[in-house]
């Protein structure tokens, strides 16, 4: 579904992404791992249109989408979440979900005055869909809660719920498990798997929790120093000496080998 070809993103003389090439297959849950500073989030930002690449291309099902802004990619079904959730804190959880779909009638002042019946009809449909999403995510009890009052894990579920309010085709999840307790992490994992299995979502997941990655992702892609270091099943990746060295350093790698 997504093909990245020799992508480079430079900040001055520093290459955060340095010739990375990879493929995210349609229908997969692909893991993207690597040490801090490997270029993972920068790669996400380029693919999702938050940053323009220095060179290289991004293709979505053969279409060149390099450098397209996020709102255009949104309409193509490419969505992303962030390490720190971006909720409308003073609005309810249900209202946060209802905000997502584009081209709502009430978005323009003129139609807000002349099309009140249509707006009420749209809002009823959106509220019903939002409640279905909340039920799917098992957080219906939070529908009227202010989004700013949610825990970190609940905010991550809310962000996942936003992707369900539109026809998402591929979703990029940036450290979805960061700061989330194990119970909620299990809920998030189950929701991702169900969306993949039942609704055909394709996912690419940045995460440092290898238990989470091992349970959820196949394949797993490893980045280091801005380029792709390895790719394979999680069990294979965790035995790869180059990956161990990238995470732990040569000295620790040799110590691990000696202990083994």
Looking at this protein, list some descriptive labels:
260 residues; alpha/beta; four-stranded antiparallel β-sheet; 41% helix; globular
Detail the poorly predicted runs. none
Distance between the ends: 39 Å
- Number of beta-strand segments: 10
Shape: globular
Q: Which strand order do you get reading across the main beta sheet?
A: 6-7-8-3-9-10
> Main β-sheet, in a few words?
6 strands, mixed
Strand content: 15-25%
Average pLDDT level:
88
The helix tally amounts to 11
Helix content estimate: 40-55%
Q: What is Rg?
A: 20 Å
Q: Strand pairing plus helix content: what structural class?
A: alpha/beta
SSE order, one letter for each helix or strand: EEEHEEHEHHHHEHEHEEHHH
Question: Could you please describe the fold and organization of this structure?
Answer:
The chain is of the alpha/beta class. The protein is built from eleven helices and ten strands. It has helices spanning 40-47, 70-75, 93-98, 109-114, 116-136, 152-163, 182-199, 210-216, 234-237, 241-248, 250-259; strands spanning 2-11, 14-24, 29-33, 55-60, 63-64, 78-80, 170-174, 202-206, 220-224, 227-232. Helix 7 links the parallel strand 7 and strand 8 (202-206). The chain is globular and about 60 Å long. The model has no long low-confidence stretch (mean pLDDT 88).
């Amino acid at each position: 579904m997504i093909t990245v070809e020799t992508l480079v993103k430079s900040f001055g003389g520093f290459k955060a992404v340095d010739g990375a090439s990879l493929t995210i297959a349609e229908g997969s849950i692909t893991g993207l791992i690597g040490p801090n500073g490997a270029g993972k989030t920068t790669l996400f930002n380029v693919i999702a249109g938050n940053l323009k690449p220095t060179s290289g291309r991004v293709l979505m099902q053969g279409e060149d989408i390099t450098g397209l802004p996020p709102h255009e990619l949104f309409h193509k079904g490419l969505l992303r979440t962030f390490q720190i959730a971006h909720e409308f804190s003073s609005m309810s959880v249900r209202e946060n979900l209802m905000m997502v779909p584009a081209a709502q009638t009430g978005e323009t002042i003129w139609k807000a005055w002349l099309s009140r019946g249509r707006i009420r009809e749209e809002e009823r449909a959106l509220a019903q869909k939002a409640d279905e999403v909340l039920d799917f995510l098992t957080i219906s009890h939070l529908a009227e809660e202010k989004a700013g009052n949610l825990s970190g894990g609940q905010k991550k579920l809310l962000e996942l719920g936003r992707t369900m309010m539109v026809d998402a085709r591929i979703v990029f999840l940036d450290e979805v498990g960061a700061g989330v307790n194990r119970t909620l992490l299990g809920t998030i994992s189950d929701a991702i798997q169900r969306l993949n299995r039942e609704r055909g979502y394709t996912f690419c997941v940045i995460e440092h929790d290898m238990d989470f990655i091992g349970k959820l992702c196949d394949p797993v892609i490893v980045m280091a120093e801005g380029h792709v270091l390895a790719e394979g099943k999680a069990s294979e990746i965790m035995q790869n000496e180059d990956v161990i060295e990238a995470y732990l350093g040569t000295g620790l790698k040799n110590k691990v080998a000696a202990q083994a």
